[in-house]
Design a protein that fits this description.
Pfam families: C2 (PF00168), EF-hand_like (PF09279), PH (PF00169), PI-PLC-X (PF00388), PI-PLC-Y (PF00387). This protein is of the alpha+beta class. The protein is built from 24 helices and 32 strands.
């Protein structure tokens, strides 16, 4: 019975009280605004994977949402909507459901504290269960789900017509004769319908992976099965792993499904496919999923995941500002966020994109959200980059809010007892907030007890702020615009004092290590191209922040790679904008335990280095590699156009290398017509890599369109140094960076020392 497939979702939750509660469901108050609060019935569908809710809309929209689409459930008044539209005393009855992608979160109030707890616990259990469903099971639950949809008259039997509908659901167009052939093959009872074991047979035909059969049969040298020794030979020779017999036995224990084979320490083809689809068979080296780099170097020796105008959810002119945007960035392990601060009503400073129609959000609410979410994904320090446009009174309030809300986590003096000469390390700064902004005096003042004579001293405006204000510049390019700075705010700036950049020589002679400059992308890219070596040496002792041009009003992004090549640490991107540049950022920071800090290669860190990414000379940075990659196949690529029931994808794969200019390259396969379910390419490419430590590998799967631009199906990006050799599965992500369950690429990789 295809329905059996569904039990996978909740097999481990059988009889769970919270789950039973959700299946019965109940009334919840849905909150949209202060005036729109309405009771609605919500319950878990008996497939344990869908939530049903009543809707009073005349044009009835879909009354369900899939648990798969839920990003997280948060207890209490944690969303902006609940904070704004509900009273503090209902805190324990509130919860919010946040969705992946752009869908608005759902704010709900339960009738009692206990019911709120059961809703949150029950939903969290199902979500974590869904995540546990490994790819093999996900694909099974996916297949059965589609079978049920295709079984129009719900009789657990499938006619030829239903079969064709089913094939279309899973992205395969079959001609009449092939459909009949498959049908006849499975219809052993000659009843004109498929049922029970016949459907299972049909499923097996569909999930059959010819390319895996070939690999398995080549290595299964023990009575048609793989012994532990056969598996070890495969791991060593094909996967290029330094494996032991214990490793092989561990994989059999973990992934073999057949008990009699497991008893003999053998691995069947099903177990082998299971292994290949798990993290050990993934392209991404599992050892890099945790922090594996030395975290005790000065903080300027790392690339730091950084966001620009973090408060924006959309564009730079009229889009909403939100604390949610900060939460999303921090949860993606962003470690440098930006706060544009302006005077607000009622004496409270606000954050928004000044002189535009973007909405405003309270400074203190943002600081609270940052405090709550800063260290959930990564425990390493977060830099708060302040762009301060406030009057003195509200600046004092900013300082007060940060001190009271962030408490001991806020860094308010150097870690050392005497004047430091270099940055502390991410390790030493774990769990701390560092303020970047203007300072009235040198840091030495902390130790000499001298303070500026007047409390209300002046500083030049931040470079980025001055540029957006179109202020006049004098002959030296120095900004004339001055702002008054409150001592209380100035004193919070320790390791990241903003100063104007006046050339590398000037910086070398006059700038202290803690004085840092911000560069507009055009200026930074120009320096990275024309003075890369000087830029790299500048970044060996100081921090540099790069920000997008003010003209990028649609929140588009610039390519971060040339700036990483020049050793820039804080390359700020618009996190809210799905783009190739954000894919590269996600790829760059995918390793080292999603800490948001990646140790720069040694040749970007030691003083004697002659490395220049633009003109490669001999040196330790050249580690010449031949990179061979075979794009073999893809599985279960999603249909893009859900509105057109007949549309099937014509997939092609692009393989791209980003790094120093000499290594940057792109190749692509042919497109395969009308097959997103199991297209096979078997196309081989070779790349010549000079500087692997700065190289990134990006896969792009597109739907070929002869008449217009190809549509993106999925992508994945990772540092070249984090890949595993051999036969590997590559996960695929949506445009917004969420994993597409059950879809993937299958490739063979060899990154070898060039002869």
């Amino acid at each position: 019975d295809p329905g059996n497939g569904i039990d996978l979702t909740t097999s481990s939750l059988e009889g769970d009280v919270d789950l039973q509660f959700l299946l019965v469901g109940g009334k919840l108050m849905k909150v949209k605004s202060s005036s729109w609060k309405k009771e609605r019935m919500y319950k878990l569908h008996d497939d344990n994977a869908t939530i049903w809710h009543e809707s009073h809309r005349i044009f009835k929209r879909k009354q369900t949402f899939s648990i798969d689409d839920v990003d997280s459930v948060r207890k209490g008044r944690q969303s902006e909507g609940l904070q704004k539209h509900t009273e503090a005393h209902v805190e324990d009855r509130c919860f919010s459901i946040f969705f992946k992608g752009r869908r608005r979160n759902l704010d709900l109030v339960a009738t009692s504290v206990e019911e709120a707890r059961q809703w949150v616990n029950g939903l969290e259990k199902i979500i974590s269960n869904m995540k546990k469903l490994n790819r093999q099971q996900t694909s099974e639950h996916w297949i059965f789900n589609c079978m049920r949809k295709a079984d129009k008259n719900k009789d657990n039997m499938m006619t030829l017509k239903e079969l064709k509908h089913f094939l279309r659901q899973i992205n395969i167009e079959v001609d009449e004769t092939y459909a009949k052939l498959l049908f006849t093959k499975c219809d052993t009872s000659n009843s004109g319908t498929l049922e029970g074991s016949e459907i299972k047979h049909f499923y097996d035909l569909l999930t059959h992976r010819e390319e895996i059969d070939v690999i398995y049969e080549k290595h299964a040298a023990t009575g048609g099965q793989m012994s532990a020794q056969d598996l070890l030979n495969f791991l060593r020779n094909e996967q290029r792993e330094e494996a032991t017999l214990e490793d092989a036995l561990r994989l059999i224990e973990k992934y073999e499904l057949d008990d009699s084979a497991k008893h003999m320490n053998h691995m069947t083809k099903d177990g082998f496919l299971m292994y290949l689809q798990q993290e050990e068979g993934s392209i991404f080296n599992p050892a890099h999923k945790k922090v594996f780099q030395d975290m005790s170097q000065p903080i300027n020796d790392y690339f730091i995941s950084s966001s620009h105008n973090t408060y924006l959810m959309e564009d730079q002119l009229k889009g909403p500002s939100s604390t949610e945007a900060y939460i999303k960035a921090l949860m993606k392990s962003c470690r440098c966020v930006e706060l544009d601060c302006w005077d607000g009503a009622h004496g409270e400073p606000v954050i928004y994109h000044g002189h535009t129609l973007t909405s405003k959000v309270l400074f203190k609410d943002v600081i609270k959200a940052i405090k709550e979410y800063a260290f959930k994904t990564s425990e390493y320090p977060v830099i708060l980059s302040l762009e301060n446009h406030c009057t003195l009174e509200q600046q004092k309030l900013m300082a007060k809010h940060m001190i009271s809300i962030l408490g001991s986590a806020l860094l308010t003096s150097p870690l050392e007892d005497q004047m430091p000469t270099a940055f502390p390390s991410p390790q030493e700064l774990k769990g701390r907030f560092i303020i970047k902004g203007k300072r009235l005096n040198k840091l030495d003042a902390v130790f000499s007890n001298t303070s500026p004579g007047v409390e209300e001293d002046c500083v030049s405006e931040e470079d980025e702020a001055a540029e957006t204000n179109n202020s006049k510049t004098d002959t030296n390019g120095q900004k004339k615009s001055k702002i008054k700075l409150a001592k209380q705010l100035s004193d919070l700036v320790i390791y990241c004092k903003s100063v104007h950049f006046s050339g590398f020589e000037h910086a070398k002679d006059n700038q202290a290590f803690y004085e840092m400059s911000s560069f507009k992308e055009s200026k930074a890219v120009n320096l990275a191209e024309t003075a890369a070596k000087a830029f790299i040496h500048h970044n060996m002792t100081k921090l540099s922040r790069i920000y997008p041009a003010g003209s990028r009003t649609a929140s588009s992004n610039y390519n971060p790679v040339p700036l990483w090549n020049a050793g820039c640490q804080i390359v700020a991107l618009n996190f809210q904008t799905p783009s190739k540049e954000m894919d590269l950022n996600q790829g760059r920071f995918r390793s080292n335990g999603l800490s948001g800090y990646i140790l720069k290669p040694e040749f970007q860190r030691y003083a004697g280095s002659e490395f220049n990414p633009m003109t490669l000379t001999k040196g330790p940075w050249i580690k010449h590699k031949a990179f061979h990659i075979m794009v073999i196949s893809a599985q279960q690529l999603p249909k893009l156009n859900k509105d057109k029931p007949k549309s099937i994808v014509d997939p092609l794969v692009k393989v791209e290398i980003y790094g120093v200019p000499a290594d940057t390259c792109s190749k692509e396969t042919r497109s395969i017509e009308n097959n997103g379910f199991n297209p096979m390419w078997n196309e081989t490419f070779q790349f010549d890599i000079q500087v692997p430590e700065l190289a990134m590998l990006r896969f792009l799967v597109e739907d070929y369109d002869a008449t217009s631009q190809n549509d993106l199906i999925g992508h994945y990006c990772l540092p070249l140094t984090s890949l595993q050799n051999g036969y590997r599965h590559v996960p695929l992500l949506t445009k917004r960076g969420d994993v597409i369950p059950s879809a993937g690429l299958f490739v063979h990789l060899m990154l070898l020392d060039a002869k």
